[in-house]
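[job 0412] stage=complex_fold ligand=zinc ion status=START
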Amino acid sequence: METYPLDKHTKTIVNAMIVASAAPDGERKPVDELPSRRVSICVNQNTVESIKPLSEGKDFQPPETGKLIDLPPDCLLIPALIDCHVHLVLDGIHGFKSLNGPVPHHLISSRLEKMFKTGVLAVRDGGDRYNTAWDYAAQSWKTGHQHLPHIVTTGKAIFRRGRYGLKLGETGITHHHQAMDQILRLKKIGINQLKVVLSGLVNLDEPGTVGPVQFSAEELKFIVQAAKKQELPVMVHASSDKAVQIAVEAGVHTVEHGYFISEESLERMAEKKIAWIPTVAPMAALSDSLRRTGQSRRADTASQAVEEHLEMIYRAYTHGVTLGIGTDGGSPGVSWEKGYAQELMFFALAGLPPGAILEMATKNGATLLGLQHQMGAIATGKKPYWIAVKPEFLKFDHPEFSPQGIFWPES
Ligand SMILES: [Zn+2]
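[job 0412] stage=complex_fold status=DONE, emitting C-alpha cells
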C-alpha cells in the first residue's frame, strides 16, 4: 500500500480513474458497468481546485511547478471510507461486559491505525463511560498532532439509571430533565454529537424481543431539543420497532442498529430524513460465536435477526432512507481490520447496487458525521481524502480489504 500525504505548499496533480456517478436508483448494476472515467485532479493548498477529464491516450501535462501522481489505469480513485459507529474503547473480542477501566492511548492508536490501513479515514465513536474517544481526540488537539481517522465523538451516553447503558455512559439519569446538565457538560468539553441509549439489547432467548425502552417520545423529544440548542445531533441506540418509532417521533439524527424495524418506520424515516445505521456485523458475529460454542438455538435466533435485517436494509434503500455504514467496531467478533469490509458485504448481500453502497460508505457517512465540507466526494472545494482501489473492491464480496493507496491532506 502506498501512502500519499499531500503537502499543503505543493500543488499536486493526480491523474486517475474515478467513478463517474452512482448507479441509478433501484437498478442493480454489475460492478464492471459502474461508469468510470480518467481525470486529472489539481490539489492546491489542501483543496481540490479543479477536475478535468482526460481523453484516452492523451495524458495530462505535468505541472511546471509541483508534483504529478499518475495512478495506473487499473486503479480506481474513490473517496475515503467512513465508519458511522465504532467503540474505540473495545478490542473486538470481549465487549462492554469486560470493560472495567480506561484503556491506554497506545491501544486506541493501534485500533485507529488498523482502520486507517483499510481506507477508513473518519469514524464516529458511539461512546463509553470513560469518554475514551473524546479523551484521545482532545489529547491530539492539545499537542497539535494530526491523527487519522478523524474521530467524531459523543462522549458519555445518556441512558436511564438501572437500565442498559452502564458501560456506555456513567450512572444514568432518573429524570429526563437531568439530561440537560449532561448535555451542557459534554458540549463544554467539545463533543460533536450526543449519544442516547433508548432500548436494551436484542434478547436471543426470546426471538424478536429487545430490552425495554428507556424514554417515552415526550422525554426523548425533550432530550433531542436540549441537544439541538447546543447544536448537537443525536445518535440513538434503538432496537425494537417501538424504540425506533419513539426515536423517529422525537426527531433524532440517526437510528443505530434498529433491529426489528418495521416498514412503516422506514417510511417515516424517509419522510423525516432520519438516517439508519443498521450495524449488521456485530449480530452476524454473535450468531457465529454462538454456533461455535454449541448454543444453536440462540445462534438460530441471531441469524434469523440478521436475515430480517438484510431484508429491511433493502427496503430502506427502496424507500429512500439515508443509510450509513457503521460496524459497531470493537464489538465481539467485529475486528478493527475486517469489520468494515464485512459490513459492506452485508449491504451487498442485502441486494443493494454497488454504486449505492459506495455512496453510503463515503458521501452519506461524511454528511452524517458533519464532515461533508471536507470528505465524502472527489469534488472541487473538498479535501483530498481518497483511497485507490482495484475495481473488484466495488463488488463488496470480500471480507478483507486493503487499498492500493491512501491520500490525505497534510496540515
Ligand atoms: Zn455501539
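Confidence is low (pLDDT under 50) at residues 22-26.
[job 0412] exit 0
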